[in-house]
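Fold in tokens:
===
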Amino acid sequence: MVRYQVSGTNFRVLGTKLRVAEHDLPIEIRRAVDKSARPLPAAVKRSAVENLPRRGGLNLLVARARVTIKRVSSTAVDVRAKGIEQLANTNAGRVNHPTYGHRPRFTQRIPKARGWFFKPMRRAKRATTDELEDAMHRVAKEII
């Protein structure tokens, strides 16, 4: 086994700064992810009102549903809409609804609604990236 020992004031200071950065970086990353995810529920509800059909009140019904954010890891969050039975269908641009006097149920295409749930997530991607870069720069300033 070979052991190297380097001493000097500069190395000690650098080592201390690196230990601080090792502690601070994950905290800053979590804060950045939280900050960028905070506006997503409101954005999802706005997207529902804008993109889902107004006739019959589907857009308002979906907008009243509960949208939650759950931390999956230090760098990932899970956004879920609770209380919407047909979330996957409406996000795919379809809605299954009853028809009176004909068939019991009918699947109708709604091209405008395709991706209504994922659109706000894609729009938030740039803001999230910027927030993470800012967090890394803040920690880098502490080291330098």
Summary: Residues 9-143 form one domain. The mean pLDDT is 82.
